[in-house]
Amino acid sequence: MAKRSISSVMLNAKVLSVFLAVGLWIYVAGVRGPDTAKSLSADVMAINVPQGYVVSGALPSVTVTLRGPMNALWNVTNEYVTPTADLRGRTEGSSVVPVSVQIAGLSGVTVEQVEPRDVSIYLEKLETVSMAVTAELSGALPSGLVIGSIEIQPSTVLVSGPSSAVSRVRDVSVSIALDRLGILAAGNISVAGDVRAYDAQEQVVTGVHLSPGTVAAILPVADAGTVRTVPILPVVAGRIRPGYALIGVSCTPAVVMVRGEKGVIDALQFLGTLPIDISEDTGSTLHKVGLSVPQGLTVAGGVVEVTCQVLVEPVVLLAVPQIQLEVRGAGSGWQTSPEVSSVSMLVTGSNSVVLGLRPSQLHAYVDVSVPPRDDGSYPVYIEGLPQGIVSVAVTPEAVIVGIVKEP
């Protein structure tokens, strides 16, 4: 009787264990769900990029297949996975890099497959340049209002990125739509806008970072009857050193806007600088100089001085022989016979201009449509001389021309 009771108890215990195991499985399956797979697409993240380099172009994407409980994968998105490509020790150029995947916040989930397993990434040297920001205006102001010199704050931004992309940037500007500002009267208007980089074809350059990405533009709006934009006229003083010639003077900014009474504004044609002493200048020299502002006028934008570049070069002498002589002005039905068929000349001028002079661009001629000199000769003229020539000596300087009626 005792043996039968023990056997019965053991049998009941085994049956109970089976029921408990089945119940536990049913519970776990109900909570976790059966194992399944789910595929997600995610962009690769570059890590450990070598100092002084940057990834060129967009990073590729990969398909990550996850395996785990159905309930755990039910609402999973690509935000839970981070594919990475370790660029430690890589150099400039294209590299094939294996992809690793990290999973965040998913218990019991593993990475089953990554496709593709390796990706190609191109590294370029990182380049950073500083560029001035300009204002790109569109639209128009109400009638009777004008825009003065626009001030950008900050006036420059840093352009960073792959050297090939940075080298394409030709202009950095902020766009301002004047017809959307709601301007009704004169005054200073401040506008904030995003900065964009453009290439030589005025297309937006992608793949570069602008810092800061937003700037402020201060627009001085004035009554059109009391403002005027005039050119800057550089005024030079002093005598250039012997053996040198003044090639040119240019100022930045080249134009300014002035305010004042209408009568004074209407009579103003230009705004001169204070005298620029060029007596010690050789080569290219920059001068910061004030403006000579007539009484009753003010310069918009707070401009009180400009930067003028003075270009001075050594004077050289060049002999140009055998320039064909042409007779002009005889009219039809007349034959001309100059006493010489060609002339020569000595040209004095700045080094760059004279050495770049080509005889083929010069033309010598006499004009017989005007009265001759007292001795019957006609002066010789030279055509085609560029700016920067100081003096020209022609031999002979005048010629006698025979003119007869054609038979």
List the helices and strands and how they pair.
Blueprint: H1 2-32, E1 35-43, E2 45-47, E3 53-56, E4 61-69, H2 70-73, E5 81-86, E6 93-103, E7 110-115, E8 118-138, E9 145-147, E10 151-153, E11 156-162, H3 163-166, E12 171-177, E13 187-198, E14 209-211, E15 214-223, E16 227-233, E17 236-237, E18 244-252, E19 255-260, H4 262-267, E20 271-272, E21 276-277, E22 283-290, E23 297-299, E24 305-328, E25 334-338, E26 342-350, H5 351-355, E27 363-367, E28 377-379, E29 381-383, E30 389-395, E31 398-405
Parallel strand pairs: 2-5, 8-12, 16-20, 17-21, 24-27
Antiparallel strand pairs: 1-4, 3-8, 4-7, 5-6, 6-8, 8-11, 9-15, 10-15, 11-14, 12-13, 13-15, 16-19, 18-24, 19-23, 22-24, 24-26, 25-31, 26-30, 27-29, 28-31
Describe the protein:
- This protein has 407 residues and is mainly beta.
- It has five domains: 1-28; 35-116, RNA Polymerase Alpha Subunit, Chain A, domain 2, CATH 2.170.120; 126-225, RNA Polymerase Alpha Subunit, Chain A, domain 2 (Beta Complex); 226-313, YbbR-like domain (RNA Polymerase Alpha Subunit, Chain A, domain 2); 315-405, RNA Polymerase Alpha Subunit, Chain A, domain 2.
- The chain is 12% helix and 53% strand.
- It contains five helices and 31 strands.
- The strands form six sheets. Strands 2, 3, 5, 6, 8, 9, 10, 11, 12, 13, 14 and 15 form a twelve-stranded mixed sheet that branches. Strands 18, 22, 24, 26, 27, 29 and 30 form a seven-stranded mixed sheet that branches. Strands 20-16-19-23 form a four-stranded mixed sheet.
- The longest helix has 31 residues, at 2-32.
- The chain is elongated.
